[in-house]
Amino acid sequence: MVSVILVHPQMGENIGAAARAMLNFGLTDLRLVAPRDGWPSEKADTMSAGALATMPPVKVFETLQDAIADLHFVLGTTARLRDMVKPVFTPHQAATETARREQSGQKAGFLFGAERMGLLNEDIALCQGVINIPTNPDFTSLNIATAVLVMAYEWSRIRLEPAASGLQRKDSPPAPQKDVEGFLSRLTQELEDKHFYRTQEVAPYMKRNLRNIFVRGDLTEQELRTLHGVLSALLGKNEKP
User: 106 and 54: one domain?
Assistant: First the structure.
């Protein structure tokens, strides 16, 4: 079951409408990252037309990293081209790839940004790819609940089609986000200790570039263990991470 993650949603009404759209097409795992007006929300309950009462309790997180820690594959919706190298999916392609990964036991999520400005570069950096919903180029602004509706519909439609074929990795499943983040934290700290960053001003951008490399790599658990081993060998450390 794919998760829907709303990052810093601002209006309870939009959260409720998103939940209603999700349940229309069989999605029930709604996660919120630091909702502006807090949670629970009476306005969200009303707007959901009973969906929130039917679905499992909404999960609320302080950070996006926490919200996606157990997921293996995350796609962020955006209307803007970014300066990061990421696979770009149409809604149909995103749903197809997500369904394929679900069939192999992976947990996936669709990420949606706040109403006013969408996802930030820091949010996109945590995703394996981006979803671009084709809209009128002169007016690309989509209500967050409408974007959720588009992706929920495509996911549901793909689920009704014959099973997609794809690369199977039974011997080594994909690494969950929390493990990738753990490796990145170790790597960036070691680089900090070795004075890798030329200045403190460029450090955040270089760390984001490193995150893009490893998140985009769609690493397996075995590959992540190998990277930990490589890092330990380079540092002259024999202990396991």
Answer: yes
CA 225 to chain centre: 22
Separation between Cα atoms, residue 78 and residue 166, nearest integer Å: 26
Confidence bin at 215 (pLDDT 50/70/90) = confident
Same structural domain, 29 and 122: yes
Q: Any bridge partners for residue 118, and if so which?
A: 114
- Residue 236 CB neighbours (<10 A): 6
Q: Is the pLDDT assigned to residue 175 strictly greater than 90?
A: no
Shared domain for 10 and 114, answered yes or no, is yes
- Please tell me the pTM assigned to this model: 0.72
Neighbours of 138 (CB within 10 A): 5
∠ Cα 124 80 113 (to 5°): 50
Residues 61 and 150 in one domain: yes
Residues 6+ apart with CB under 8 A from 72: 101, 106, 107, 108, 173, 174, 175, 176, 177
Q: To the nearest 10°, report the CA torsion of 224, 93, 151, 217.
A: 10
